[in-house]
Amino acid sequence: MQHAFQVLSDSGLFDTILMGILTVVVIPLIQQGFKSAKTTKVANAYGALDKVAEGVVAKLATQYDVPSGVKHDQALQTISTQLAKKGIKSIDTKDIDVAIEKAYQYFTSLDTKAQAKQNEFNDGLANADKESQKAVTTVPEPNVEAKSEVAEPVKVENSADSEQDSLTKLRNAIASAQKILDEKEQAQGGDKNA
């Protein structure tokens, strides 16, 4: 047996047989193990994505006054942050969008309290819009006369204290505005002391 092994080794046939076994059997097994480990890792990452997306969508579903586009952007940002904290960086935003949509479809297929409250909120918002439109259409146009006069420019003395300058400018502007309001009140025939 040793003699046969020696002959195979000396002739180079042993190396050829060994390379053949490595090429045909061992290397494919190693590659398959690597693919399997990689597939498991990817599957675990997407499983985590689904769970995080469901949690984020459920949380954002209770924010009734936030528009859906803003909710989607918040969900995308939150999920990306959560995945990064878990060390998962290989998932792109398209896959996150799909996970958000999947979680949204799941929650909309359920009859949840959040959906009932969101519908109630949306109905109230629509009613408020209708009432607001009614109120706007019934308000008469104001009777405003255009004035040709312009307020006098504010005179400010140079001072070393910029804070004092700002206060002086503000007081002068308020006085000018009050003067204009008083003139307008008198022009409309109103009584300032009433």
From TrEMBL:
Membrane-spanning ranges: 12-30
Positions with biased composition (Basic and acidic residues): 144-155
Lineage top rank: taxon: Bacteria
Keyword entries, A-Z: Membrane, Transmembrane, Transmembrane helix
Region described as Disordered: spans on this chain: 126-167
Protein name: Holin
